[in-house]
Amino acid sequence: MAYDEVLAERVRERLGDETAVAEKRMFGGLSFLSQGRLVVAVSGDDLLVRVGPERVRDALARSGARPAVMGSRTMRGWVRAAGETLDDAALGHWITTALTYTATLPAE
Questions:
Q1: What is the rounded distance in angstroms from the CA atom of residue 89 to the CA atom of residue 16?
Q2: How confident is the model at residue 108 (pLDDT cuts 50, 70, 90)?
């Protein structure tokens, strides 16, 4: 599956101030890691966002959010944000949410 290059560039710009950001092809798209932790991924036109298991319910209440499903499995602690809803404010929210959660995890 191809991924939205424009969305990937917008994510790069948002993560530009983060230290140790890396990109890796996975989930059929382009994933972004910070400090070795998987944060978000551009998959098709959407953004996969790591919110943490305890925040999924709240995340799903946001416009354009739905469960992140890979194959037949729902990804625990992740949501998929629809690309058409990712204006600058929404993209910033999702990236901040993901960075905040992943900062609580041990380094990988």
A1: 16
A2: low
